[in-house]
UniProtKB/TrEMBL annotation:
<dbReference type="InterPro" id="IPR012340">
    <property type="entry name" value="NA-bd_OB-fold"/>
</dbReference>
<dbReference type="Pfam" id="PF21375">
    <property type="entry name" value="POT1_C_insert"/>
</dbReference>
<dbReference type="GO" id="GO:0098505">
    <property type="term" value="F:G-rich strand telomeric DNA binding"/>
</dbReference>
<keyword id="KW-0779">Telomere</keyword>
<protein>
    <recommendedName>
        <fullName>Protection of telomeres protein 1</fullName>
    </recommendedName>
</protein>
<keyword id="KW-0158">Chromosome</keyword>
<dbReference type="GO" id="GO:0000783">
    <property type="term" value="C:nuclear telomere cap complex"/>
</dbReference>
<dbReference type="GO" id="GO:0010521">
    <property type="term" value="F:telomerase inhibitor activity"/>
</dbReference>
<dbReference type="Pfam" id="PF16686">
    <property type="entry name" value="POT1PC"/>
</dbReference>
<keyword id="KW-0238">DNA-binding</keyword>
<dbReference type="InterPro" id="IPR032042">
    <property type="entry name" value="POT1PC"/>
</dbReference>
<dbReference type="GO" id="GO:0032210">
    <property type="term" value="P:regulation of telomere maintenance via telomerase"/>
</dbReference>
<comment type="similarity">
    <text>Belongs to the telombin family.</text>
</comment>
<dbReference type="InterPro" id="IPR028389">
    <property type="entry name" value="POT1"/>
</dbReference>
<dbReference type="Pfam" id="PF02765">
    <property type="entry name" value="POT1"/>
</dbReference>
<feature type="domain" description="Telomeric single stranded DNA binding POT1/Cdc13">
    <location>
        <begin position="160"/>
        <end position="290"/>
    </location>
</feature>
<dbReference type="GO" id="GO:0016233">
    <property type="term" value="P:telomere capping"/>
</dbReference>
Length: 782
DNA sequence: GTTTAGGGTTCG
């Protein structure tokens, strides 16, 4: 078999390949040169799933990294393996293996511009007379270089083409600001279609026609001014202009185009690259767009519709009904009242989908929108309760023959001119959040009579009318927080508590009138349990400065590769010529798999440190002294694990030599727990904690109670909230349930809490404070 | 099998 497994040689520097073969340097590899009796060697840093090509032959792609130059992208090369050899390799080759190939063809790499790798790729197959040797690298053997190669070479570097540099027949990556778009609609072929016109700072426009059988893989554009990043879009000339069209492997990210909004990509891709650099690009495009692209104005509300005009409406779907073959009815509301009498499209009661009670309750606030032709199919699939943006609705003034009063009709005509269509907005869309808050604040009694209110009270259950009514109902019935202990205690009125002496403990039933801080990220602090001090969480800039400061001292080579760690050092290629050293801590005299490895880094930037935390279990930034490695200033995290930065208390810590880590490394299965690491390093670990002030009321009085919570109350670890958008949204939603914005006191939900009172005395005054304890947010609220 | 749409408001 031409795929050979080689044994690990004792001397690990040479791979035992047949004598007649000579190693070829990647630098000397060129198309058309004679590479007979030469071999290419590298570490497998990436492999793709085995696939079949159009002609039915098997195909397997891997990426090799040259270990002599691990930190250069150009020293990695794509290897395309065909036929039986592809199958054989796919079975045995793993990341970290050393891979040797002889008898290959060298061709120009069509993806070099995109992935930044070698300008050529290798074609390998039995037919071409290729031979493959490999040395098992994973998981039994790692060298520091392999660890580094695996870490620094993973993400391909994409090149983005400005819109004025597009050429016919190319496949490119690009950024653009949406100047015009048609939300995905059902085409006359087999796919969904979306047409998007982009503009960029080169001031050139590009209209892209995007097709996909899967609506989700088209860009999620909600408004003009959104920013998109397209990968692998094909450029063609059409009618004398460049045009973009989906090609195989097309992928997109969409961002809110508002300056200052969170940079969170909308995408259906499971994995995608998104680095600090790209983050910066989005920010820059936003700034450019702010003064160069006219963003759509504030969306129209029903209260401001003008007859005879076209408008975009952000609304919630309350009901829908089939009308006839070419039209379909949507009943929607946006919380405001249309100032004109609007038409009611007659439909059979049995055809009307939606909660009867809600339809009745909102009957004076909903409008009927009749959608036609190509929009019908999409309209049918919409879920009651979902949030929509309907683009280019026609407000048509009409008067019925039988009456003098003119009324207003809402049509979504057939076709897709001017972006006419329907888009479903997700719950986390900022416009939806705003609309939801508004809808919840609408006082239905103002536009309803008492009869309908009774109906709501009477009909307890709503099945699929999301969030709005059912949520409101739920909130008025069950408490939104529950007790985790002492259930036998009975409630005490707040007035009684205020008039009692401290310290005592109480069970209370109260409403949350307000809380501080309103910006939830401000509620996260660092707490030292030894000296009881609280401090702000330092921001990334502070850390960056400390790293820059420590990089001034070059790594001391005398401290490299000791009994308990292996080291690699290299100099960056840029002008700064920075020296970086990484020390991989060994276990049982061996290096571990990246996900189990603790490493120490000297001279790295914020971005490099961050990148290392993605691949390795623990990262500890250090600096060299004359005779030892030591931790940086304690204003910087002493340890990074996953997304969490761990800090030590400056007052209570007494840093010990980093060599103490070797005692953990010597354990049978090193756990690398932050508490254990902190202990051996003499660090008093600061804990992340939520600190909030809740103003509770119960009709007898009001008091401020502090919430001091590591994780229990919100069931969200305070340590993870600052780096996790999902958890932030979850916490915001929880607070919105506990204390819904814009709601009257009577409509607020009940909280069940334990609070304890305690005395705070200083020379000047005496004060009684209250703290919430043994309380958690109810399960169905989280 | 490689289309569909290729921006520029309306039948109802």
């Amino acid at each position: 078999m031409p795929v050979h497994l080689l044994k690990i040689p004792d001397d690990q520097s040479e791979t035992p390949v047949p004598r007649h073969l000579q190693k070829e340097d990647l630098k000397h590899l060129q198309e058309g040169h004679d590479h007979t009796n030469k071999y290419i060697q590298g570490i497998v840093i990436l492999s793709y799933p085995l696939t079949k090509l159009g002609d039915g032959t098997d195909f397997f792609k891997i990426v090799l990294q040259d270990l002599d130059d691990v930190c250069s992208r150009i020293s990695s090369i794509n290897v395309l393996i065909h036929g039986k050899m592809a199958q054989d390799c796919a079975k045995v080759i793993r990341h970290g293996d050393t891979f040797v190939v002889a008898g290959f063809k060298v061709l120009k790499s069509p993806t070099a511009r995109e992935d930044g790798r070698h300008g050529c790729h290798l074609e390998v197959s039995e037919e071409a007379g290729s031979t493959i040797y490999y040395v098992r690298g994973y998981p039994t053997f790692f060298s520091p270089k392999i660890l580094l190669a695996l870490c620094f070479s993973i993400a391909p570097k994409y090149v983005y083409t400005p819109l004025n540099r597009l050429k016919d027949g190319t496949i490119v990556n690009l950024y653009g600001i949406v100047k015009f778009f048609k939300p995905p609609y059902v085409s006359k072929g087999t796919d969904y279609c979306s047409v998007v016109t982009l503009v960029d700072p080169s001031n050139v426009k590009l209209t892209c026609t995007l097709f996909s059988g899967n609506q989700d893989s088209l860009p999620r554009i909600y408004k003009i001014g959104d920013i998109v990043r397209f990968h692998r879009i094909k450029i063609r000339e059409y009618n004398g202009q460049m045009q973009g069209i989906t090609s195989g492997g097309f992928a997109s990210l969409t961002f809110d185009g508002t300056v200052g909004a969170p940079v969170v990509p909308r995408t259906s891709s499971r994995v995608y690259t998104f680095t600090d650099e790209e983050h910066k690009t989005i920010e820059e495009l936003r700034v450019w767009a702010a003064s160069n692209v006219s963003i759509s104005g504030p969306a129209a509300k029903l209260s401001s519709v003008q007859p005879m005009l076209f408008f975009d409406l952000t609304c919630q779907l309350v009901g829908k009904a089939k009308v006839d073959g070419s039209s379909f009815l949507l009943k929607v509301w946006d919380g405001t009242k249309c100032p004109y009498p609007s038409w009611r499209v007659p439909v059979e009661a049995k055809d009307l989908e939606g909660e009867k009670v809600v339809l009745h309750q909102l009957r004076n606030l909903t409008v009927d929108i009749l959608v036609y032709d190509n929009h019908v199919q999409l309209a049918k699939s919409l879920k009651i309760g979902s949030f929509l943006r309907i683009y280019s609705i026609h407000a048509k003034q009409a008067s019925a023959d039988t009456e003098d009063v003119s009324h207003i009709e809402f049509h979504l005509h057939g076709g897709t001119c001017y972006g006419r269509g329907i888009g479903v907005l997700p719950e986390n869309n900022p416009d939806v959040k705003e609309l939801k808050a508004f809808l919840e604040s609408v006082d239905l009694a103002d536009s309803q009579n008492m009869e309908s209110m009774f109906l709501v009270e009477f009909n307890g259950t709503f099945s699929d009318f999301t969030d709005l009514e059912s949520h409101l109902q739920r909130c008025q019935q069950l408490p939104v927080t529950v007790l985790t202990d002492h259930q036998d205690l009975s409630n005490t009125e707040l007035k009684t508590i205020i008039n009692s002496t401290a310290p005592q403990q109480y069970r209370v039933r109260a409403k949350l009138r307000t809380y501080k801080p309103q910006k939830l990220h401000q509620s996260v602090k660092l707490h030292c349990s030894k000296c009881n001090s609280l401090q702000e969480v330092p921001d990334g800039d502070d850390f960056d400065l400390i790293l820059q400061g420590s990089a001034v001292t070059a790594p001391n080579p005398e401290l490299h590769s000791t009994s308990w760690y292996d080291s690699v050092m290299w100099t960056t290629q840029d002008q700064k010529q920075r020296k970086i050293a990484i020390h991989f801590v060994k276990h049982d005299e061996m290096l571990q798999q990246p996900e189990d490895t603790l490493l120490m880094i000297e001279g790295g930037t914020l971005k490099e440190v961050w990148k290392l935390t993605k691949r390795f279990k623990c990262v500890i930034p250090v600096k060299s002294t004359e005779d030892d490695l030591e931790l940086l200033d304690l204003s910087a995290p002493f340890l990074l694990q996953g997304n969490v930065k761990y800090y030590g208390c400056k007052q209570c810590s007494a840093p010990k030599p980093v060599k103490n880590l070797s005692s953990i490394a010597a354990e049978q299965q090193p756990s690398w727990e932050p508490t254990v690491i902190a202990q051996v390093l003499g660090i008093e670990l600061l804990q992340y904690v939520f600190i909030m002030k809740f103003t509770l009321v119960d009709g007898t009085g009001a008091l401020n109670a502090y919430l001091f919570d590591y994780e229990k109350f919100f069931q969200i670890p305070a340590s993870e909230i600052l780096t996790n958008n999902f958890l932030q949204e979850k916490m915001q939603m929880t607070m919105n349930t506990l204390c819904p914005p814009g709601r009257k006191l009577g409509d607020l939900p009940w909280l069940e809490c334990f609070i304890k009172s305690y005395n705070v005395r200083d020379a000047m005054k005496h004060q009684v404070c209250y703290q919430i304890f043994d309380t958690t947010v109810a399960e169905d609220v989280v």
